[in-house]
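hey can u run this one w/ NDP bound, need the structure tokens asap thx
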Amino acid sequence: MVSIPAIRSKQLFIGGQWVDPLSGKSFATVNPATEETIAELASGDAHDIDRAVTAARKAFEGPWSKMAASERSKLLWKIADLLEKKIDEFALLETLDAGKPISESKAVDMAECLSVLRFYAGLPQTISGSTLPSQGPAFVYTLREPLGVVGAITPWNFPLLLSIWKIAPALAAGNTVVHKPASLTPLTALKFAEICQEAGLPEGVLNVVTGPGSTAGQALVTHPGVDKIAFTGETSTGKSIARDAAETLKKLSLELGGKSPNIVFADADLDAAARGAVNGIFYNAGEVCCAGSRLLVEESVHDALLEKIQGRLKKFTVGDPLDPKTRMGPLISKDHLEKVEGYVRSGTQEGAKLVCGGARPGLPKGWFFTPTMFSGVAPTMKIAREEIFGPVLAAIPFKDGPDAVAKGNDTIYGLSAAVWTRDVKKAHQVARALRAGTVWVNTYNMFDATAPFGGYKQSGFGRELGREALDLYTQLKTVWVDLS
Ligand code: NDP
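ok here u go:
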């Protein structure tokens, strides 16, 4: 039995206080590996969102707006230090709540949270406007100012990491935040609020309201006191948020779904490409927005590559996410598992060949699924077109470079892509031709706090990470001074 780290689970964090939801309602968060309830959470609604937005506005207009940029830096750095001290607790909570392997929760999710917090901790004093060479006797300059209150709405696949991708640049730029975490994985968001409080973040600068997307989330999107919504989640939810945000013309950044092509040419290092293909689709059980779910393989090496992938999958351990040797934990929920199974059925019905996996591994509890690969997938099949968000790889052969690019771009999405080749010229040509926000060459799933990430086409708009993200949390004011 593991002991669950203590969390203020039944309360919301509003205006620096832990408060009960006005409705008095709660909901359960469940461990996807054991199907047991971990904790009961406060179910916030529109009234709680209103309280949180009011607190965030007060903080924005009060102490936060008067704080020196260097002080914001110090606070972000202090928050990172506290998170680092409690990294084991955070990693455990994330694994219990999201089912991801404990080794990855710590070495990837939490480690990247630290690096993103520290990257943005270094930036507040660099946010500046410029002076402009205007015609005529005038002094013209710009001020780069924060937006105000930011609503952050986050998904369940990288619960804390994708929250920090929003909270860190928002605070660095001088905004205040109301965070609505995913209902399936709200625990680390609450724990993070605790360390922000401990670090001395002024009250109201970060507020956390747990509760359903259809009530609390929507209330945040439509609230007239919110200046911007930073959202990560499904493309369909993103569209509904864009419609709801239109009424108050809120600024939006939308990080949405994907169906990313992982393109392997015949001249690639096939062992490296096989490793990249496995990492690309089975990392985090395929519950990754940029998962390399379409494996496009040059015809002459198609069979050889699939054999190498199968060989790797034989050693791929699916099971208890608390076991450090586990490579793949359960899927997030029973509903999601059934959705993935539906896609596997549709792949078989549409005539693709199931090469491996395609079933539950037979563990007594938990929503586990085996790593699954299809070959002979036609680009028109559902498994080649729709985001499955699970451990299902669709292998599609291609003839040559133009065919690879055409097939790679044949999707409504454009989040990421990869190309494997030893030919430098081909690598760059294909990277340019692919319509995706990130292209990896001879690697997959690499991230860094400094490197912007976001989508083309229906994978959304705006960029997270990098200096570029600060543009989405600031606005420019132009000041004219008459010198005549
Ligand atoms: P959802 O779109 O279902 O939910 C995301 C968040 O939005 C949750 O907090 C949810 O609340 C909330 N929400 C739901 N409906 C509304 C609404 N009408 N108004 C406001 N908020 C709402 O996504 P998932 O959590 O299922 O996450 C998986 C998806 O996220 C995948 O499609 C994936 O591709 C995408 N994703 C994109 C990334 C990127 O960077 N582009 C990165 C990671 C994931 P609740 O949980 O209560 O339903």
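Residues 12-256+459-480 form a domain with the Aldehyde Dehydrogenase; Chain A, domain 1 fold (CATH 3.40.605.10). anyway lmk if its weird
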